[in-house]
Amino acid sequence: MPLISKGVSPCPLLAAYPPGTDGDFPRAQLEQCKALELQGVTAAEAGDLSTALKKFDQAIGLLPERASAYNNRAQARRLQGDVTGALEDLERVVALSGGRGRAARQGFVQRGLLARLQGRDDDARGDFERAARLGSAFARRQLVLLNPYAALCNRMLADMMGQLRRPRNGR
What we know:
- By secondary structure, the chain is mainly alpha-helical.
- Helix content is 70%, strand content 0%.
- The protein has helices at 27-45, 49-62, 67-79, 83-97, 101-117, 121-133, 137-146, 148-165.
- α3 (67-79) packs antiparallel against α4 (83-97).
- The longest helix is centred in the N-terminal third of the chain and has 19 residues, at 27-45.
- Residues 1-20 have low confidence and may be disordered.
């Protein structure tokens, strides 16, 4: 599974941006930007985060108003342990996208995951709700996991299933 968005990915967190969202950018610059992102993705998947970050920085330098490279750089920064830098990039994604579209959906999901990892469940819930409204099935699943009633029901169901699998009194 790809670490960072490119082409069509089965990973809901890092899916590619659909054609048509890039229509405002000059074609030659857009193609160059996409090529740089692809090189960054390839480097990240090979474990070379330093090269990946350089490629994403170049893509951002070429088209600083395009959200895709910020999403990718945020993921690479997170993988490198730079959570602050990742959050800065995700804020930029949300601002550039106006909180709409696929880029925003991916940004909200990534930001929600970071909030969850930091124990900020209320912030995570808010981002997952925004991403779910934008069509993220992954965010909807995260919202269920954050729901304390759902967690209690899941625990009770697991206990009940465990009891059914273990016969009592040797039966």
